[in-house]
Amino acid sequence: xxxxxxxxxxxxxxxxxxxxxxxxxxxxxxxxxxxxxxxxxxxxxxxxxxxxxxxxxxxxxxxxxxxxxxxxxxxxxxxxxxxxxxxxxxxxxxxxxxxxxxxxxxxxxxxxxxxxxxxxxxxxxxxxxxxxxxxxxxxxxxxxxxxxxxxxxxxxxxxxxxxxxxxxxxxxxxxxxxxxxxxxxxxxxxxxxxxxxxxxxxxxxxxxxxxxxxxxxxxxxxxxxxxxxxxxxxxxxxxxxxxxxxxxxxxxxxxxxxxxxxxxxxxxxxxxxxxxxxxxxxxxxxxxxxxxxxxxxxxxxxxxxxxxxxxxxxxxxxxxxxxxxxxxxxxxxxxxxxxxxxxxxxxxxxxxxxxxxxxxxxxxxxxxxxxxxxxxxxxxxxxxxxxxxxxxxxxxxxxxxxxxxxxxxxxxxxxxxxxxxxxxxxxxxxxxxxxxxxxxxxxxxxxxxxxxxxxxxxxxxxxxxxxxxxxxxxxxxxxxxxxxxxxxxxxxxxxxxxxxxxxxxxxxxxxxxxxxxxxxxxxxxxxxxxxxxxxxxxxxxxxxxxxxxxxxxxxxxxxxxxxxxxxxxxxxxxxxxxxxxxxxxxxxxxxxxxxxxxxxxxxxxxxxxxxxxxxxxxxxxxxxxxxxxxxxxxxxxxxxxxxxxxxxxxxxxxxxxxxxxxxxxxxxxxxxxxxxxxxxxxxxxxxxxxxxxxxxxxxxxxxxxxxxxxxxxxxxxxxxxxxxxxxxxxxxxxxxxxxxxxxxxxxxxxxxxxxxxxxxxxxxxxxxxxxxxxxxxxxxxxxxxxxxxxxxxxxxxxxxxxxxxxxxxxxxxxxxxxxxxxxxxxxxxxxxxxxxxxxxxxxxxxxxxxxxxxxxxxxxxxxxxxxxxxxxxxxxxxxxxxxxxxxxxxxxxxxxxxxxxxxxxxxxxxxxxxxxxxxxxxxxxxxxxxxxxxxxxxxxxxxxxxxxxxxxxxxxxxxxxxxxxxxxxxxxxxxxxxxxxxxxxxxxxxxxxxxxxxxxxxxxxxxxxxxxxxxxxxxxxxxxxxxxxxxxxxxxxxxxxxxxxxxxxxxxxxxxxxxxxxxxxxxxxxxxxxxxxxxxxxxxxxxxxxxxxxxxxxxxxxxxxxxxxxxxxxxxxxxxxxxxxxxxxxxxxxxxxxxxxxxxxxxxxxxxxxxxxxxxxxxxxxxxxxxxxxxxxxxxxxxxxxxxxxxxxxxxxxxxxxxxxxxxxxxxxxxxxxxxxxxxxxxxxxxxxxxxxxxxxxxxxxxxxxxxxxxxxxxxxxxxxxxxxxxxxxxxxxxxxxxxxxxxxxxxxxxxxxxxxxxxxxxxxxxxxxxxxxxxxxxxxxxxxxxxxxxxxxxxxxxxxxxxxxxxxxxxxxxxxxxxxxxxxxxxxxxxxxxxxxxxxxxxxxxxxxxxxxxxxxxxxxxxxxxxxxxxxxxxxxxxxxxxxxxxxxxxxxxxxxxxxxxxxxxxxxxxxxxxxxxxxxxxxxxxxxxxxxxx
Length: 1480
Description:
Strand order of the largest sheet: 2-3-4-1-5
Structural class: mainly alpha
Largest sheet: 5 strands, parallel
Low-confidence stretches: 85-90, 201-252, 642-655, 682-700, 1336-1371
Shape: globular
Strand content: under 5%
């Protein structure tokens, strides 16, 4: 009782505050006491009459309202009668009085407000379910859970009544007249959702009747009662587990939404990767010392809100974090106890931002706790609720764990490396922690473990006590952890493996290893990083070198890092200058570099290859650098492929490598004074130097793609900090080393390297273009941060010369312009160049600022011409941009001949770039975006000609053809035609211009002339570019089809495919013509041929068919391939390729990411009848769509609606099939259908007693049908599913909008069929079909064609103009409907015949708008399973109910209709009877 009391008080306070905010008046204790005698509707009426004479006789005037109010209040009166004891009175007695008092105010507010009483009568009816639930609860002995539920329902009622009073007072209630209020109103829908969440918390969905039975049994016999309780608990636990399982499966679409909002960066994946990597490296026993720490145990036992663990750099805090996470995860008792964690990293902005940290934690919790997941799904629907870290904390974390409705939901949050986050992030996170700790007791639902450097204590504004409760990672505590680490690493030592091969070698190696371990441990002094760096330095060394290193080990971590670099500085095998430059790049580059970028930078300026750099980075430099390999790449495979493995002697193979090392020896060297003397006693070959590396001769590129794309990073952020500090004279603390790069040199060196990379003209090699990414994106940043005053004249000259070459020469401008990468035939990275160098002038202004430095001109190296250019470029944007604009102009306008593949690029990018640059020169803004038709259409034809004329090129035939194409791309057809004709006049072989003329002519629908132009173009096309014909013939095919000349279309399709079978359009047209001729065998043969041809570039897909499926618009293509597959025995290879196509685009953020799974699902369903596969792919579509932006989701709204409807049907059919096999068994499909149908939180448990609100869509109708026909629930339950929809559809009949009559009629027909009201559905269907029963003569043209479209358009225009009035009721007995003559057009979905062409038309009661004629229906009925080959497509389930709607049954003709003269008139009595039936 005490456990729930706080929750009940909180519920009451929250609901009271909400009520008073809405109602604008108080329900204070004084007011409640004055209303305390109100215990029934009679008391309520008496008070109203006593206080206001207006209410005399009120009951008689509002009998229906009185009846509804009386039914609603009766259970409240019952509760008040039993709320005599102090417990019940405290729990719900006061709340009940408050609800009745709120009713008093609501009724008073309706006086003198038109229609208000009618509306609150409706509200009371909708609240009846909640009131009746109270009555059921009141019939049993009340325990704490039921008291809480009663209080929750009463609090809900109070808030709804307050909301209703607010709407009445503000006169906003009328939008809910004659429709359901709960659910349609967003506020009340949220209240129901919150109520259901409370009911569903802790998986305690207990039906009140079960409670009553169990409680009575307990009163009769305690023993039986205990058994019942135990059994009930087992069932509840099973149902709870089932709920979690099913919810995860069913919320597959919501998963994408969560990731879209909470994992918009890579932080979630990176954190998981760090944890996984640490866990793999974690040695058994590591971290065990924490178990002996009282503070740690107190925190684990939920007795301390915060656990601070401080340690210096490199002491192994991240491994401790990993150990804690693993420990807590393994010991979790249930889903109520969750663990979330984050690894902050200084070198990644995504890993040091407060909001990203909290979102990542929230996503981890959502993946582990179904209840939190549902909470998070609600929150992320409004992006404003997670905009800032404070928003995310309050709404996601406090909104769940701070909710007293969930007292035993706990989470332990582990934050590693918080000191590496930004100051703002540290302040924010620690501030949130402080406020949370100070607002709760020690028994906290949210606990924190913070691991970081001691400096973090200065950021924490906690009390002195809170700050002093910490654990320090000292050498005494982590000694054993380091010991395990050291001994595991010693097993990698080359020298120990060599020693083991000799006689008695195992024992000797073990003793030697123990001695080395002892030395390392002594020097580590509790610092993991120290031990790691030291072992990295000796693991491949000779014994004598190891002894020298261990003789004088560094004393601190700084000493250790210095010693690592000191050792590297003394390593004669390393190129020290190369290493210094490598460290400079890694320390001061703006992002981690790929190894390919690093290798390239280090090869400059000589371009000599660094053959050993890869091996050194993985070997000698592994103590400094970590390598992150691209997915799927194994570096060992590269090495193994080139390795020359020598044969081993018998002696070398005499020992077993599988025998583990044993370093348990105390490390006592016995009689030996040092390691060397000990080693001399070992009879083995000390010459571990065997196998001198043989210089290899490499031709061309010697690095694999995997090596080039490997990311290089420091193995610890401390190393970067060290290098930054030691690179500056002002902050340096250690002796200077030649390999430590200077901070002062960093921006200069990187700027010069970027300029040198541009000079390499790597843009000419597609596989090397990625090496231009850093210079293109970041060079100007380094240039802008140069301290020009500190630079030597030589340095200034080098930078100036590089910039001058880049922007004043043709070669330099080409290096910038052509740097974007070509991904494949359909994608590229031009947007990268556009955003940085075209859309903004920022880069160019930085360069101009450099040129404007007076010291630049003082150099004697410049010629007068160069000086003039530099001076002009410093102030003139035209001078600065001239070469770039010339490159773009040449790319667009200068084609050498007609016999060149350059005509594939018509110059859209070049033209758009020119517009951007010319706008910079003219200093006026432009709104152009990345090149495309929309951008070109914003540029006038006159401006386009100005851009083309800017360079002053000769206006020859190629110039006019190029300008014509750009004008056509911008839909400036008149100008384009003029330029094309000029080009043809200048050269009769101008095939490109002729193609353009054909396209323009086709836009005017002059198909014959368009074909002539393209055929002429092909006839003069040079042989060297004949493959272009494969792009032209498909248009000829299309235009011949327009002329209905299919023979010539067929010939053109064959010619196009023969000219270029790689061309997707040619493939499509060939398939279309085969389909049209019903040559299904040729369709399958061609598709099989594409399937068998592998792609050379895997980016385009595994084979030519996958490429066609992905890029070829398979939505229409599938309609041609599908029937052929049905006719040719359902080949399976196309199904396999569809799956490959889906996977091919799964990481591609594009249109195809969504379209491919949708099309694949449609194809598998429609032509193969694979319903399970289709459902899976539809779910994938919805999941991917949920991850897209709001604008993209809006663009796909219609497709989402169609997919959702189809998915709902598939779930329904699957649920029915499962039910037929096992009526009482688990039904996953039914649960998925329910999730689609409900508006609020729900459960799948059979004894769920929450309050479902339903959507008004197709899924909800199918769920209602399921409840009625299969779940066989009581009539009031399944009727609630249909009620909101039917009431709104009925309103469309007699509202003031005649344009919605037809839609409302069709919609109501569907709903009534699903609701089981065949009679009224048939009456409405008769009205619809009557419009097509007899077509008036004037609707048929002289040629026999139907004028329905024109007439319908005319009718709609007249309606909009008010010619037909407002659709008002003509008489008090009838309602006039405006139904177009085409509204009842029904077509058989198989043979596509209309009603007038068939004897019968059958209407599917379950599918949406699916019909069968009398000839096609038997084919459907005959199919029992599979893809139904008798039908052209799979469109319906044979088990569905169908209704014969045509010819119109006489008994239905005038059931709803009164007259069909001058339109349709519906009987008012019929309409009102139906409305009252569904309001009942």
